[in-house]
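pinned: reference chain
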Amino acid sequence: MTAQDIIAAYFNAFNAGDGAAMLALVSDDVEHHVNQGEIRRGRAAFAAFCAHMGVSYREQLSDLVIFATADGARAAAEFTVHGTYLQTDPGLPEAHGQSYRLPAGSFFTLADGRITRITTYYNLQDWIAQVSP
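pinned: its structure tokens
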């Protein structure tokens, strides 16, 4: 699979809510850099993050555009997140099933057919404004 194929499969699995398929695409030592938080290292930490997200948020991504370097070592994606805030996340506004929509982007490093780094960015203040009363 090419880098673009791997990233497309990752986002297809995300949209399908298939955490196992997402985990199959990342390396054992994957580094997950989140927009506002500490780096999560390792597949287990990434799996815990995905499980938490599945409880607190329901999200679908659209308008996906994937870019990759010629050597397949790096890739990026731009997309729109369409979500529902299901369960209050500590330190964030209270959840009441609010809907939100915001642009986001992810950057990836790949090696040996697996994703070794995921870095995702979005405007947290925009999200907070959308879910706040």
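why pinned: The helical segments are 3-16, 19-24, 43-56, 124-131. The chain has a mean pLDDT of 95.
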